[in-house]
Amino acid sequence: MTNLTESTKNLNGFHYFALGWRLITRPGLKRFVILPLLANIIILGSAFWWLYGQIGEMVNWMMEKVPDWLQWLSYVIWPLSVIFILLVFTYFFSTIANIIASPFNGLLAEKLEGQITGINPPDTGLLGITKDIPRILKREIIKVVYYLPRAIVLLLLYFVPVVGQTIAPILWFIFGAWMMAIQYNDFPFDNHKVSFANMKSTLKKDKWNNLQFGMVINIFTMIPILNLVIMPVAICGATAMWCDRYRHQHVQAGQW
């Protein structure tokens, strides 16, 4: 396991994110890291190149929605609007990248878990992996269906005077952190066919640590260059968290 000298109670979400940066350099993981990395570079790189050219106009449009009597708060509302736009685009394009790279992300989580636990996953071969792709993509769609209604409510909240311009970006950040935790924890859970509902229930019982994990992913995803490598790092961190904190709840000892 990854917590050789500490109790899992002392290992929070920040720890597992930092651990992810070290784990991606492990021997034997390179080929599993490269494919998710390429997907992220192409999709997130292109999206943020376009976004940084448009964000000024988007913020100005949002500021026009602020009532005149709140203009004196523009020094607060303007940065919150920037954060709001970045969070919306970050999750949207991260989701697209994860859907495209989901089979490779699952392989990365599986390979790392085998290294951490010393228990090798069953070798299903290329045919087995190919047969599993529809199920993996269906799981990604389930996550999108979970996300969309909540995202729409938060988007509508932004247009409520006062509350929308001040509270909505903060709620978006918290919600985005939760969704990032779900997104990346889902790969090791799904490798063991743990249902989406059961995974959510498990993560909610450890919600603060998962929010920490998701928050730092959110922040790094908004930073140019670093956001291009965040996907494999987050998968490795989430897999380590699964092995330390959740695996024993869903898998019998000594079994894959």
UniProtKB/TrEMBL annotation:
Its main location: membrane. It is a multi-pass membrane protein. The chain crosses the membrane at residues 32-52, 72-93, 144-164, 210-235. GO terms for cellular component: plasma membrane. InterPro entries: CysZ-like, CysZ/EI24, Sulfate_CysZ. It is found in: Cell inner membrane; Membrane. Keywords: Amino-acid biosynthesis, Cell inner membrane, Cell membrane, Cysteine biosynthesis, Membrane, Sulfate transport, Transmembrane, Transmembrane helix, Transport. The keyword Nucleus does not apply. It comes from the Bacteria. GO terms for molecular function: high-affinity sulfate:proton symporter activity. GO terms for biological process: cysteine biosynthetic process; sulfate assimilation. It holds the Pfam family EI24. Belongs to the CysZ family. High affinity, high specificity proton-dependent sulfate transporter, which mediates sulfate uptake. Provides the sulfur source for the cysteine synthesis pathway. PANTHER family: SULFATE TRANSPORTER CYSZ. This is Sulfate transporter CysZ.
